[in-house]
Specification:
The protein has 179 residues and is mostly helical. It is built from 6 helices and 2 strands. The longest helix has 42 residues. The chain starts with a helix and ends with a helix.
Length: 179
Amino acid sequence: MASINKAENMVGGWLKSVPHLPKGGQKWIAENAWWIVLIGVIASAIAVLTGIGAIFAYMTWVGNTPVYSGYYVTSPYGAGWIIGSVVSLLFSILIVILLATAITPLKALKKKGWDRLFLVLVVDAVSAVVGAILSFSILGFIFGIVFGAIGLAISAYFTFEVRSYFGAVHTTPAKTAKK
C-alpha cells in the first residue's frame, strides 16, 4: 500500500499546476461520484458480457468456417487476436469489480472509495500498455499508447480534482516535515 500512496502523491504532484474546476463543481462530482460509478459499472458489465459472447461466437465461427485464400485455408484472425481480446476482457472484469466495490465508500465520501478509483487508474494504465503491446503492430502500439495516455490523463484529472473530499489525503513524511 505504501507504493500506491507514493504513486498517488506523485500523480497528485503532476496535476497540482493544472487549472482546477470551481469548488462547486468539485463538490458536485465528489458527492455524485457514486452513482456515476454505478452507471459505469452497469454499462461495463453489459460490455463484458457482450465481449464474452463475441469471443465465444468468434471461436465457434472460426472453428467451423474455413476461409479460402487461393490454395490455402486460413483463419481470418490469428491466435493473437483471441489472446488480446481475452486479456482485455480480464482487465475489464477487474476494473468492474474494483468500481463495484467503490460505490458504497464513495457514497459515504470515504477515502477507501477514492483509493479504489485510483487503483482503477493504475489497472487502466497497465491495461493500456499491455493492450498496446498485444496489438502486434507498430501503428496499433503507437495509437494504443497515445490514446491510452489521453484517456488516463482525463480520468486522473477528474479523480484528483475530488480527492480532498474523500477523507485524509496521504502525504509522504518528507512533505509533512517541510510544512
